[in-house]
Amino acid sequence: MNSKLSNGDIYRKVLTFSLRRLLFSVIYIAMLVGLTAGGFLLADKLWHFDGSGLVGMGIGLVIAIVFIAILSHFFMYVIQAGQIAVITKAVTEDELPENCWQTGKAMVKERFATVAIYYAATSVIKGLFQELSRAISSIGQSVGGDSGGAVGSAIGIVINTIVSYLCDCCLGWVFYRKDQGAFKATCEGAVTFFKNGKTFFKNMGRVFGIGIVSLLAIGGAFFGIFYVVVLQFPNAIASLASEIKEITASSADEKWVQILSNPTTLGIAIAVVLAIIVWSIVHSTFVKPFVLVGVLRNYMTTAIENIPDPSEFSILEQKSKKFKKFKEKHADEL
User: Fold this and answer.
1) What CA–CA distance (Å, rounded) separates 131 from 300?
2) Quick one: pLDDT at residue 314?
3) Closest to 168 in 3D by CA, of 279, 290, 281, 280
4) Mean pLDDT, rounded, for 91-96
């Protein structure tokens, strides 16, 4: 497929979605940090029992997570789906709209009239591929012992990364096949992967390569920043470590307790966690969309050249035990 639009051209035009996603992410972080820290400080002043600050921090964290989940459910999906819709349009039609943001929103509303329809379609996609993920991960765990579990976890991380991209590609196919029902288009997209799995897996090297470089560069930089910030609050870190030590006295021999009850290692742990959170946001917001353009272009080229027939959906029944339930529920779309 000859194209006048390069991956870089498409990426730069869809950055409008990334910037909006970044804004929401900043709001989420502010809520998470503000409510968690506020819960710790408020509880420490109002309540006077061992671990009160830690309990307050937990309550603040739960409240923050609830608010973030609600906002993500009703707003973030438009940004994510809209970006995939516009990328799909660009790689299949070799042109970009003047206003990518408005076009993306319109495409999402046209394909998924309500939030419920969108999440129903994406749940089918994730259900199909995540079952594959669990099946492959269990191979490592079946080796036996802790080493088997470690192998299984490592395999799971790899597969889940691939699944994330496949779900996005499958969603792109749902946008492309707008003349078909969302469930039928989802099945076509999934079958395309299973029929051409070796081809797609070969192209996953750059996914992991860029991911590792991104983690080391972005994650490492933010770890340094956060660790410097943490060092500015030695009293607060010491107080938190002391509370952790008090409420986990019966588990003092556990390695994680020894780490978290020591102010120095607790500070490092906090910096690591914060760095991973920020890296995840920056990577998914700015790095992943660039990689996705190339992956989606390859996926769509392969899929368009060989659109699956409904008779081939039996492949999904072999790969996923849950597919029969999905099929029965959406039988009117096939």
Assistant:
1) 23
2) 83
3) 290
4) 93
What the block records as the tokens of 60 is 């603040």
Q: Which residue has the tokens 């996953």?
A: 204
Tokens read off for 74: 């009703």
Instruction: Give the Cα separation of 243 and 259 in Å (integer).
Output: 13
Q: What was the pLDDT predicted at 77? A: 87
Going by the DSSP 8-state scheme, the letter that residue 332 receives in this structure is G
The closest of 69, 35, 50, 92 to 298, measured between CA atoms, is: 92
pLDDT band for position 81 (cuts 50, 70, 90): very high
Residue 194 · residue 315 · CB < 8 Å: yes
The C-alpha atoms of residue 278 and residue 267 are separated, in whole angstroms, by 17
The 10 Å CB-count burial string (b at 16+, else e) for 210-245 is eeeebbeebbeebbeebbeebeeeeebbebbbebbb
Report which of 82, 178, 182, 208 is spatially closest to residue 125, judged by C-alpha positions: 182
Our CA dihedral for 228, 230, 232, 234, rounded to 10 degrees, sits at -140
Phi, psi of 248 (to 5 degrees): -120, 25
Residue recorded with tokens 């021999």: 253
Reading the block at residue 28, the tokens are: 């989420």
Instruction: Give the burial string for 255-286 (b: 16+ CB within 10 Å, else e).
Output: eebeebbbbeebbbebbeebbebbbebbbbbb
Q: Which residues contact 64 (CB under 8 A, 6 or more apart)?
A: 31, 32, 34, 35, 36
Taking the alpha carbons of 294, 298, 301, 304 in that order, is the dihedral positive or negative?
negative
Count of residues for the chain? 334
Alpha helices in the chain (DSSP H): 7-13, 15-46, 52-71, 77-93, 100-111, 115-141, 145-176, 182-195, 197-202, 205-214, 220-230, 234-247, 255-260, 263-282, 288-305, 314-319, 323-329
Residue 144: pLDDT over 50: no
